[in-house]
Amino acid sequence: MATAGQVIRCKAAVAWEFNQPLVIEEVEVAPPQEKEIRIKVRIVATGVCQSDLYFLCKCLNQTMFPAVFGHEAAGVVESIGPGVTEFQPGDTVIPLFMPQCRECRLCKSPKTNLCVNGSAGRIDERSFERSRISCRGRKLLQFLGTSSFSEFTVVKEISVAKIDPAAPLHKVCLIGCAICTGYGAAVNTAKVEAGSSCAVFGLGAVGLAAVMGCRAAAASRIIAVDINPEKFEKAKVLGATDVVNPNDHSRPIQQVIQEMTSGGVDFSFECIGNVEVMRSALESCAAGWGVSVIAGWTDMQNFSAPPIQLMTGRKWTGTLFGGFKGKDGVAQMVRAYLDRKLMVDEFITHNLRLDQVNEAVELMKNGRWCDPKLRCSLHD
């Protein structure tokens, strides 16, 4: 492309300060360096994930500002840096916050989807030095190495998944985080069994994807739990057999679910990032064999539970990106969508322009969303 090797000036939503509105700025995106790829996100799409809101408005680590958020996107390769062999300009891709180098001991192991090259939220001075995005003479942190709230971004070759060019990028962008995280929590991490009972706590995009994963695994009963009843109909569309609002009950929600299921569910999923709900989800499981999976992100508090909950046979585990290896899992999920084996369209509740990003943030804060999708083409 004509811009290869040049600095690109484009629009991005910049977070200059903690818990402040994002500002649409002109930024400079440097050419890709060794083993890097520059991706054109403009005229395609990026999702707005709960993790973006967490780090913008809740996380106490304020050393990460200024930053460009966004990590759930799809786009087209604009140019490649030296040493890149897997991609060519024009390839359709999804950037990954969970890299897959395919060479390290973790990538070679079938037991994990981690990669030794992954950062998983670690932020330090080197994070700014590595950034290819700058504004007003300052380097901007590339959130999770991606920064899709920009019309162009630069990512490592190991952090990009090539996908079928037939995929509608304005929809499959959501596979880059929420859908894989929730769906994989059920099918990969918990390994939900046919005929089993499940409870999903939190019906944002991750929770709804977990509901969908439980149905794909042929669970016979799927209890969807949320304090916002407006989410219940969508949960039923995706596979929920029961819906429960904890505010409708005077007893703890784990007691309600235990009574509903004569002792607890086989599998439970915490998809919020709330340590109290993590314990509730664990205690909703059946003694002897119940498995509870933590899929919601938080690093503000520690979680705890009485040891007897585990001593009686329950298992408590967690998941990042639903256990999917980045490159392989994303391509697999996009193919499942194209084969009509995976629902994606149902997750998109709003279509907004990049300059409406603060509206998307407010939708998240108010819980009136699944995953607002920002069209990154700017309109007059």
From TrEMBL:
Keywords: Metal-binding, Oxidoreductase, Zinc. Coiled coil: none annotated. Residues 39-163 form the Alcohol dehydrogenase-like N-terminal domain. GO terms for biological process: formaldehyde catabolic process. Residues 205-327 form the Alcohol dehydrogenase-like C-terminal domain. GO terms for molecular function: S-(hydroxymethyl)glutathione dehydrogenase [NAD(P)+] activity; zinc ion binding. PROSITE patterns: ADH_ZINC. Its cofactor is Zn(2+). One of its GO terms (cellular component) is cytosol. It holds the Pfam family ADH_zinc_N. InterPro entries: ADH-like_C, ADH-like_N, ADH_Zn_CS, GroES-like_sf, NAD(P)-bd_dom_sf. Signal peptide: none annotated. Belongs to the zinc-containing alcohol dehydrogenase family. This is Enoyl reductase (ER) domain-containing protein.
